[in-house]
Amino acid sequence: MKICVIGAGYVGLVAALSFAKYKNDVICVDKDVNKVNQLNKGIPTIYEEGLEPLLKKCLEKKYILFTNNIRTAISLSDVIMITVGTPTNPDWSVDISQVIDAANEISISIDKYKVIIIKSTVPVGTHETVKNIFINRGVNENNFDVVSNPEFLREGRALNDFLNGDRMVIGSNSKKAIRIINKIYGPFKTKIIYTNPPTAELIKYASNALLATKISFINEMANLCSKVDANIETLSYGLGLDKRISKEFLNAGIGYGGSCFPKDTKALVNIGEKYGCEFNIVRSTIKVNENQRLKPVEILLDHYNKIEGKTIAILGLTFKPGTDDIRDAPSLYIIDELLSMGAKIKCYDPTVSKEMETLFPNITYCNSIIETVKDSHCAIICTELDEFYKMDLKIIAENMKKPVLIDGRNIIRMKKAKKSGFSHYYSIGNGSFEINDSTIHK
Ligand SMILES: NC(=O)C1=CN([C@@H]2O[C@H](COP(=O)(O)OP(=O)(O)OC[C@H]3O[C@@H](n4cnc5c(N)ncnc54)[C@H](O)[C@@H]3O)[C@@H](O)[C@H]2O)C=CC1
Ligand SMILES: O=C(O)[C@H]1O[C@H](OP(=O)(O)OP(=O)(O)OC[C@H]2O[C@@H](n3ccc(=O)[nH]c3=O)[C@H](O)[C@@H]2O)[C@H](O)[C@@H](O)[C@@H]1O
């Protein structure tokens, strides 16, 4: 099958390579010329496990090509998948201008029947908007079908999720389009649900909003645990054993980040408003998360009263492990808040540098955990990177000015932190301690 994927971002690149892996002829289009050049040389533009070898293999076998010539790519393809960004506007509405631009471009080059798949996360009714663009631009209605096919992959496991996800949702009323889509998804090990386009569009927002709600709920429970000497980890385990609840997404911490939960929860509230649906639960989820991601700052304010002049080590910047993505990461909000209070920031994340340096030019970027914690008053774990699980806490504590540890992802056992010489340890609902030993405070 000849497939054109528009947008070589996290979703587009993964989708394009997955189709190429199954020997489809894939053309992946991006308007960013640098991205296109880099990808054609076999250099990944994002960090994602397994991506680099697959990219190299697909280029070598000529199953994939990257270009910025959208018109040729469309006219050569039977299936066109739109995977461009859909960011949130300040009023929480969804900016679908990239989807509309792509649809306008597609409309110019439809010369025979093509299936247009909307894979980007879009507000309900967008399939109709895209269809109307084609009709208004004079495209013959027999020459296209627009299908809603939202994506559920997670960053860090994107390739595996794309190929073996829990489900695939196809929103279409056209048997012809469904036959073609079944062919391209045929080799994937995924359960397919067929529905109409509005249901497909809404399943995506419902899914992200419910997962985000689970996180905010468990974070509120964690905050209560901290006050009453209860343990959130055991509580989550106890909850998760109930199959109706499931153990997934019950890890308490400094809240959710990323390019999707923050934006899609807001979008759902905005979409609901248009139809007179309040979505009070989702509104609260957002509010709880906005407070939760600043939990370490709240803890530090309680601890020090005044943060000015303190050196804070930030361990981990990305919104989760296994990715180089810092979009809406809790670390950004923590750093911003601490800087506004006069703290000095040192940080460490092996996958992130350039983009962060543009956002925060006045903080210190370190190359190792030890360099980061050296002479810091406090260390905050913002991302549960593998190397933070394994770090030698004794050496960390020895190198710090005041060995205070805030474990924003609950990865360090309290007992171990106590034995390692920290004077204070705070988790998110997993306990805390304070050692009143003046020898510890250097
Ligand atoms: N990042 C993720 O894990 C997931 C994202 N999604 C959704 O998928 C969509 C894409 O997300 P990401 O891949 O993260 O975005 P991204 O920002 O990483 O990639 C979008 C790409 O589209 C390109 N682009 C924009 N307009 C274009 C045009 N007219 N022609 C050619 N290229 C164009 C941009 O240059 C960029 O490279 C969003 O709607 C998002 O909500 C859905 C599931 C997972
Ligand atoms: O629409 C999207 O873009 C994607 O959004 C999420 O995927 P992703 O953002 O890549 O990452 P998640 O693993 O869901 O984590 C999101 C955030 O929630 C946080 N989280 C997750 C789970 C948990 O128990 N606790 C918790 O705080 C993570 O630290 C992270 O900041 C969804 O899981 C995907 O199904 C969806 O396709």
Which regions are unreliable across 5 or more consecutive residues at pLDDT < 50? 438-442
User: How big is the Rg?
Assistant: 24 Å
Sheet with most strands: 7 strands, mixed
CATH class of the largest domain: Alpha Beta
The CATH topology label of the largest domain is Rossmann fold
Name the CATH architecture of the largest domain: 3-Layer(aba) Sandwich
Number of beta strands: 15
The largest sheet has its strands arranged as 11-10-9-12-13-14-15
Q: Mean of residue pLDDT?
A: 95
The fraction of residues in strands falls at: 5-15%
- Domain count: 3
C-alpha geometry: elongated
Number of helices: 19
**First and last CA, distance:** 67 Å
What structural class results from the helix and strand content? alpha/beta
The distinct ligands, each listed once, are: 1,4-dihydronicotinamide adenine dinucleotide, uridine-5'-diphosphate-glucuronic acid
Q: Helical content, roughly?
A: 40-55%
